[in-house]
Amino acid sequence: MNSKNATQPSINSVPSIDTINTILIINAGTSTIKFALYQPRELKLVFEGKIERVGQEDSRLICKYTAINSLEALPLVITDRKSTINFLIHWLEQQACFGTIKAVAHRVVHGMHHTAPERVSKSLLVELHQIGANDRDHLPGEVEIIEAIFWRHPMLTQVVCFDAAFHHSLPRVAKLLAIPRRFSNKGIERYGFYGFSYAYLLFELERIGEPSACKGRVILAHLGSGVSIAAILDGKSIDTSMCFTQASGLPMATRSGDLDPGLISYLMQNEKMTSTQLRHIVNYESGLLGVSETTSDMRDLLVLEKTDVRAAEAIEMFCYQVKKWLGAYAAALGGIDTLVFTGGIGEYAASVRTRICEGLEFLGIKLDEVKNTSNMQVISSVTTRVKIFVIHTNEELMIARCALQILPTRRASSRVLNQEK
To answer: Where are the domains positioned within the chain?
Structure first.
């Protein structure tokens, strides 16, 4: 775990850190581990960062310190996830404010029937291990971080917040899958994900005074390496593109999205693929990468599309599929008042937004191209009925808000925090 001669940054000079407690947020993905430190009072951000390209040779830790407006970057030489986790915990321990941390809140993608934040306990960890097979790309890694922190700091309160809980409001008809009911009775249904992202988008719409956030028809489009769309009616999710796992729904960077079940049987029989090989293909070799055969990054595809038909087709497929889902959810909602783009593609790829919205004028969707190319917050034409927003999401803030539902107030002592664990 070397850092290529990089020096460890310190926040000794950061003023006004709450010496009573802070809450650390861990948001672990498959290739990126995000983290943030908040003071519970007014949820003031102390620092935020991430380790990107986990397990790859060009992995690095990036951290931004709010009070001193400083950005640090540490190149890492770490080739496996376990070492990356240990490095992150060690790095956090070296920070001057580590002793103020009295709770750690984790995003857990798949919680099955869990719909509220919970303190980490041995019984909860056993259950998360048991359902780990339902989300092999996220849950085992998330549990690994929880357990690593527990073994190094057993008296530190840890809380898990379930990403799928946002979609608990889905009506029965949206949850049901057209398979034998005996599987539904075992909890196999549509769960949906990116809940913290969606919760933040609604929170931000309400903050800026957009009435549809609480009373109206909203479609939220999280377009990044993962892609998910949700239909929101009067502030509640009524449908969402991802289903039982995050591999479902729309095509993504490396995920296939929805596939014909008959194709799975065909590949197993004719290509002699095992279930493990199939899972790897649909999660890591498909989507934009599979169609383009070159890259999963939309930025690279946009550069290549004029000279590479495969890149052009990958972009066209992506935009077409997003457009279809927008139309489907407009039908489910009985119309649309507000459309929100977020995620790396949704926030920065203006030309992709243009292609998605083209031809949707009949729904009241029309872009102002000047605003769109400038990546302004409101990019809809003043002549159209539907307001179109571009909003940078903040999952870590919503995880903190979620965890504080069950954590003591900042006046609570560490003794009380530990007793309630």
So the answer is: 22-168+396-419, 190-198+207-390
Instruction: Spell out the residues 6+ positions from residue 159 whose beta carbon is closer than 8 angstroms to its own.
Output: 103, 104, 105, 106, 117, 118, 119, 120, 403, 406, 407
* Sheet strands side by side (includes 236-240): 236-240, 227-233, 217-223, 338-342, 387-390
Spatial separation of the C-alpha atoms in residues 193 and 166, rounded to whole Å: 8
Q: For the whole model, what pTM was predicted?
A: 0.87
Q: Torsions phi, psi of 268, nearest 5?
A: -70, -40
Domain 22-168+396-419 has CATH 3.10.129.10: no
In the numeric block, the tokens 């605003």 are attached to: 371
Catalytic residue among 163, 234, 260, 368: 163
CATH number, domain 190-198+207-390: 3.30.420.40
Topology alike, domains 22-168+396-419 and 190-198+207-390: yes
Secondary structure of residue 302 in the 3-state scheme:
helix
pLDDT band at 409 (very low <50, low <70, confident <90, very high): low
What is the tens place of the pLDDT at every residue in 365-379? 999 999 999 999 999
Tell me if residue 135 is catalytic.
Answer: no
Confidence (pLDDT) at 355: 98
**Residue 155 CB neighbour total at 10 angstroms:** 11
